[in-house]
Design brief:
single chain; 191 residues; alpha+beta; Beta-Lactamase; 41% helix; globular
């Protein structure tokens, strides 16, 4: 599989298909060029859906007054299994949309979650282990970094899906304003 990936990567580089996006340093190496193509051709088309933008903006407005103590309390409720909070997110319109995108990806996407301007989950295809992502690189290296950055995690084995995956995180932009971020788990074997 690695040899096939190297052939595809060499072809991509030779054809000059890579975009002008700035790639974060978390995953310097062989997946950078292919990840850029996945972002441009697979992720950005559905990420720019007005429904995604509207959901993030609505949550930003609703959560504008939250303090860090409020955020920590919400995260603790999530990690403690608060059914109302979890089902409220997993069953909202954005989550249903993201579940459809995951399913249409035919195995490419292992998970998708959208975060607001505080790093709280707005919608997700699958339940995350925590509600607040604002202390993790997928948010801290994306949301404040500007509209053109992407962050690539290292490729790791995902125990639950028995696949090797990387997380691609990028900002959600309304016009020129960064309003949130998204993380997309990608099955590395499909790259």
């Amino acid at each position: 599989m690695r040899d096939l990936f190297k052939m595809v990567l060499a072809t991509v580089v030779a054809l000059g298909i890579a975009s002008s996006l700035k790639v974060g340093t978390a995953q310097a190496g062989e997946y950078d060029e292919v990840a850029q193509i996945v972002v441009n051709e697979k992720i950005k088309p559905w990420l720019n859906n007005p429904a995604v933008i509207a959901a993030v903006k609505a949550q930003n407005e609703a959560n504008a007054g939250l303090t860090q103590a409020d955020i920590d309390a919400l995260d603790l409720k999530w990690r403690s299994g608060d059914e109302a909070l979890i089902s409220g997110v997993l069953n909202n319109e954005l989550s249903v949309y993201l579940q459809g995108i995951r399913d249409q990806g035919e195995g490419l996407y292992t998970e998708i979650f959208v975060m607001d301007n505080k790093g709280l989950n707005v919608g997700q295809s699958d339940k995350t282990s925590d509600y607040w992502q604002g202390d993790e690189a997928k948010w801290t290296e994306v949301y404040p970094a500007g509209a053109d950055v992407i962050h690539l995690s290292d490729v790791e084995e995902d125990e639950s899906s028995q696949t090797f995956q990387m997380q691609i995180s990028l900002p959600i932009v309304d016009g020129s304003e960064v309003i949130g971020a998204v993380t997309v788990g990608v099955n590395a074997d499909m790259l």
